[in-house]
Specification:
The chain is an alpha+beta fold and about 400 residues long. It is built from 13 helices and 20 strands.
Length: about 400
């Protein structure tokens, strides 16, 4: 138990924070998890967990539990927004056999991690609103109610508006990407299979896939526009606005949008990757270190990778300064590469001019027909990367 005797405070009980708490506790640390919400829960959104994230969940002992609550994703299918048929079908069962691609409700994954953390002896403290973090020999988390939490190490998993990130890097300057996204879930009345479908249209696209034994469908709809929307996942919007934005979409998307009764809207902002991920016995992970746009579905997966590597570095190196420097060295370049790939992926879905869209879709269709295995394996550098074996 390499971390026995160390007291670690983790700020934020999202996927990355819970995974870090569990990984650190497994190595003997006394872990306190601070969460500002009144309960450990997430609502209303699906996640795609790819093999690189699934490897961490398996190493944390949650592989069988994931099999129970998640669906195995059989394929990723690109389609035109108004024409029937597939533009490109990436058959994961055929060309990525044995790899774990999951479709899971965020609340279910959070629940698995929280239950495991409590069972392992992590001290979960709710309603803990962080004001600021003070790095140092013994870093201090200052809460808004005036209380303090001291530790040997503070892990900032406190998301996009991270107080921990500010402590190490100062405020950043995110900019609006010119894109907004809606999230919604609806009943799976259409009996959609366990596949992630991407419907591509001019200046917008819609992603959908089933969750929870196929009983519901998760929808993420992205639109390019000049009017910005506030950043964050929990800003409600009128479903009529979503339907109006995607009025030209036919077939399955149109049927799904008819069923939307509640939706959340948020603006997509690009944040710089934090220059410093660690210092003064403070470390960052997940969105606190590297906010990620959703165009490769890697936000949660990168956070899981961070959590495992941080715990692994602390286990390998007794000196915390050396361990935290090693953590940043192992993670930062990979995170940047994945984020750049995600940033470059959106344009493929949003061709505005009909001739360009036709040519782009033709290129995708031909590539998938001539080299289907290569089409699936183009992101092997992301999916087959297993940090638990590093």
């Amino acid at each position: 138990m390499a971390l026995s005797g160390r007291h670690i405070v983790v700020a934020g009980a999202g996927i990355g924070g819970l995974a870090a708490a569990l990984a650190l506790r497994a190595r003997g640390a006394e872990v306190t998890l601070l969460e500002r919400a009144g309960e450990i829960a997430e609502v209303g959104a699906g996640l795609q967990i790819s093999p690189n994230g699934a490897a961490v969940l398996s190493a944390l002992g949650l592989g069988p539990a994931m099999e129970r609550v998640a669906l195995r994703n059989r394929a990723v299918v690109l389609r035109d927004y108004r024409r029937p048929g597939d533009v490109l079908r990436l058959d994961l069962e055929k060309y990525a056999p044995g790899q774990d691609f999951f479709l899971v409700h965020r609340a279910d994954l959070i629940g698995l991690l929280a239950t495991a953390a409590r069972g392992a002896g992590v001290n979960l403290r709710l309603l803990q609103n962080i004001d600021r973090v003070e790095p140092g020999t013994q870093p201090v988390v200052h809460l808004c109610n005036g209380a303090q939490a001291r530790a040997d190490l503070v892990v900032g998993a406190d998301g996009l508006h991270s107080r921990t990130r500010v402590a190490l890097n100062g405020p950043d300057q995110p900019f609006f990407t010119g894109q907004v996204a809606w999230r919604a879930t609806v009943p799976n009345d259409l009996d959609l299979p366990a596949e992630a479908s991407i419907y591509m249209g001019p200046g917008r696209h819609l992603v959908c896939y089933p969750l929870r034994e196929g009983r519901m469908v998760n929808i993420v709809a992205v639109q390019e526009r000049r009017d910005w929307a506030e950043e964050g996942w929990h800003h409600s919007d009128d479903p009529a606005n979503l339907r109006a934005a995607f009025a030209g979409f036919r077939g399955v998307p149109a049927e799904l949008l008819k069923r939307v009764e509640e939706t959340a809207l948020w603006g997509l902002f690009r944040h710089p990757v934090a220059p410093r991920w660690q210092g003064g016995n403070v470390a960052l992970l997940g969105d606190a270190a590297h906010p990620t746009l959703p165009f490769l579905a890697q936000g949660a997966n990168l956070a899981l990778e961070d959590a495992w590597v941080l715990a692994d570095c602390l286990e390998r190196e007794a000196d915390s300064v050396t361990a935290l420097a090693l953590y940043q060295a192992r993670r930062r370049d990979r995170a940047i590469r994945v984020i750049e790939a995600a940033n470059g992926n959106a344009w493929k879905y949003h061709f505005r001019l009909s001739p360009l869209r036709e040519l782009g879709h033709l290129a995708l269709r031909l590539g998938g027909s001539l080299a289907p295995a290569q089409a699936v394996r183009q992101f092997d550098w992301i999916y087959t990367h297993d940090v638990t074996k590093g």
